[in-house]
Design a protein that fits this description.
heterodimer, A: alpha+beta, six-stranded mixed β-barrel, two-stranded antiparallel ribbon, B: alpha/beta, six-stranded mixed beta sheet, four-stranded antiparallel beta sheet, 10 strands
Chain lengths: 406, 252
């Protein structure tokens, strides 16, 4: 029997049982559709998180004090006072793979303007901080070197602080606000960055010269952390090792001593988050894959029923000259048609679901070519795999018994 | 001299059911020539069905020789037997065995699907010709459930004719039909036989067997007797004598 006849016979057999073929297909459609949709949602949210983290600066390094232990007791981060401004200077002077360095000193407190007030965090930084954190000015100016050195009481506001204190009508620049009861002159406003990937408001902040925050607001002689920008993302690991070396030297750590600081790189963080969302994606995909498997078993089930129900047809086909392999092929082609057609419809269905889910969750969904190819290949294999056994059973029937089957 | 279609020598068929051996056929010798119209008769368990299965190359004898159209069937494997069935034989069954939800034309086309040499155009032409030969050309697009029992059997006969077989084998072809319709089917068979078709059919009704040219009677796995039909009847004549009442064909 040639291929054309084979397909014609299989198509006729499926058309004879339209409803059953469609219902069987439905299992595959839902299976493939959910695999594609789930992978698309997973990929989309991974991309969204990555993009957001990259927007914070993919070549950013953060140096923080390490856990301090005294006599085996962990004292936590807050009491660590190991980082000094001299470390910032040392890094700036010595590290080759570093383009920008800024200290960060945090102080939180009440901020007041007129009859409005808000609670926020004041970051004591240098002007390089903006470049490292990918912050940009919406209006006004950055504080000058003179203001840095003279501990000038000037500040730059984030958008949320502006909204909370001034509302929409007042231009904050040139106004005087009180931070922890000290008057500060507003010299600039930051462009809005929106929420971070973790749902944190990135606009709820005030920037001020680190000198001012250190001595006037926080009253400390150390700094909380150091923000570094590597010359490029590729140089990020080199910058990390340089900074480690410089800090170990300036902290006079012995060969055997542990680092008293930690360096976190944004690219590592992105990788970590990416791998977490990969795991999520695979998990979603696996759950959807199970439904695809169930769909495949549905095909096998229907093919078995079909073989039993059509025993006399099989006997007839054998008596008029169908060989065992013709019968085998016919049933195999039937099951493959169900699975492949179901797969094709499932891909369309998956696209639609991904699109709808994307607009509902207001996050992009990415239907990757691989997932489509994979789903299709899996369908093909399901057709062969789950069709084989019933087809084999049909082909092995004895024509005499099959013809008499009631 | 007429050509021998079937030559069987000392054919035996044993079935093994558990430890018991059943001798279904115990030494059959039979010759059938081209153009014969043979009725095989016998009671249940006489071996006539087994004989028909072997004649139809659906089953293989345990012992003995069988030549079908000068082909030694014993030497063929399963696939070759299938090809032999496809090209030399036509089957008609008691229960018609038409594919449901499939038009008459497509049912008739079916055997030709298993012959890869035949293109779809020729397949259709031959199927239409076969339907014409059984007088159902106007029913080609009807489904089996839209046809009466007699019409369904005619479609089945068209299907058995479509591959232009050397031999048509019919297993109780009138078993599910009422008297008048049975005669109509017999009339069709006689017409085909007059045009040169060799036909063998199995029946247990002696009045149906009288339409044949020769009767072969089986008993206990052996041929009890063979005789030429002397008082041969023609279905055409009998049908003329039957009153054409409102006898609708019906299924049993």
């Amino acid at each position: 029997m040639n291929l054309k006849n084979l397909f014609k016979i299989a198509v006729r057999a499926l058309v004879r049982n339209k409803l059953r073929a469609i219902l069987t297909m439905l299992g595959i459609i839902i299976g493939v559709g959910s695999v594609i949709a789930m992978l698309a949602i997973g990929q989309g949210s991974k991309k969204k998180i990555r993009d957001q983290m990259s927007s914070m600066g993919s070549n950013m390094l953060m140096v923080m004090p390490n856990f301090q232990r005294r006599g085996g007791v962990s004292l936590g981060f807050s009491v660590s006072q190991v980082l000094k401004y001299s470390d910032v200077v040392a890094i700036k002077n010595e590290a080759t793979a570093v383009s920008e360095v800024s200290p960060e000193i945090r102080a939180s407190g009440q901020v007041i303007f007129g009859n409005q007030n808000t609670q926020t965090t004041v970051y004591g930084v240098t002007e390089e901080y903006l470049g490292i954190r990918k912050l940009s000015m919406k209006s006004g100016r950055i504080f000058s070197n003179i203001e840095l050195r003279s501990m000038a009481k000037v500040c730059i506001l984030g958008q949320t602080v502006v909204t909370n204190l001034f509302g929409a009508d007042t231009d904050p620049i040139g106004q005087s606000i009180r931070i922890k009861n000290l008057p500060f002159l507003v010299i600039g406003v930051l462009a809005s960055k929106g929420e971070s990937g973790f749902g944190q408001d990135q606009d709820d902040l005030i920037l001020a010269p680190y000198t001012t925050v250190q001595s006037r607001l926080a009253n400390i002689d150390y700094i909380n952390s150091i923000y570094i920008s590597a010359a490029s993302e590729e140089k990020s690991p080199l910058a990390q090792s340089e900074v480690t070396e410089i800090l170990r030297r300036s902290h006079k750590l012995k060969e055997s001593a542990e680092n008293d600081f930690r360096i976190m790189s944004q690219s590592e963080l992105i990788q970590t988050v990416s791998s977490v969302s990969d795991v999520m994606t695979y998990l979603l995909g696996a759950i959807a894959g199970i439904s695809l498997l169930v769909g495949g078993i549905g095909i096998m089930n229907i093919m078995f029923v079909s073989v039993t129900e059509r025993t006399r047809e099989i006997g007839l086909r054998m008596s008029i000259g169908g060989r065992g392999k013709d019968i085998l092929r016919q049933f195999l082609v039937e099951s493959m048609m169900i699975s492949i057609l179901g797969g094709a419809l499932g891909i369309v269905f998956g696209f639609a679901v991904a699109k709808i889910a994307g607009s509902l969750m207001s996050s992009p969904t990415i239907v990757s070519t691989q997932s489509v190819v994979l789903a299709f290949a899996v369908c093909f294999m399901i057709g062969v795999f789950f069709g084989w056994y019933p087809a084999k059973k049909a082909a092995g029937l004895n024509p005499i018994d099959a013809l008499r089957y009631e | 001299m007429a050509n021998k279609i079937i030559e069987i020598r000392n054919l035996r068929k044993d079935y093994h059911v558990g430890e018991v051996t059943i001798h279904a056929l115990r030494g059959i010798d039979l010759k059938i020539e081209t153009g014969e119209y043979v009725a095989i008769m016998g009671a249940s368990g006489s071996g006539k069905s087994t004989m028909l299965n072997i004649l139809g190359c659906l089953d293989k004898p345990s012992d003995g020789d069988y030549w079908l159209d000068n082909v030694d069937v014993k030497t063929l494997d399963k696939d070759e037997l299938a090809r032999l069935r496809n090209q030399k034989l036509g089957f008609v069954f008691q229960a018609y065995n038409l594919l449901p939800r499939t038009t008459a034309l497509e049912n008739v086309e079916l055997p030709l699907f298993y012959n890869s040499k035949i293109r779809s155009k020729e397949r259709k032409e031959r199927a239409i010709n076969a339907l014409e030969a059984v007088g159902l050309a106007d029913r080609r697009d009807h489904m089996p459930n839209q046809l009466s029992g007699g019409q369904q059997q005619r479609v089945a006969i068209a299907r058995s004719l479509v591959n232009d077989p050397v031999l048509i084998l019919a297993d109780e072809p009138t078993g599910n039909l009422d008297t008048r319709t049975s005669f109509e089917i017999m009339e069709l068979f006689q017409d085909l036989n007059e045009k040169g078709r060799t036909i063998i059919y199995v029946t247990h009704e002696s009045d149906i067997a009288r339409f044949a040219t020769r009767n072969v009677i089986f008993k206990d796995g052996k041929i009890l007797r063979e005789n030429m039909v002397t008082d041969r009847q023609f279905a055409r004549d009998i049908l003329k004598t039957l009153p054409v009442e409102n006898i609708e064909e019906f299924d049993v």
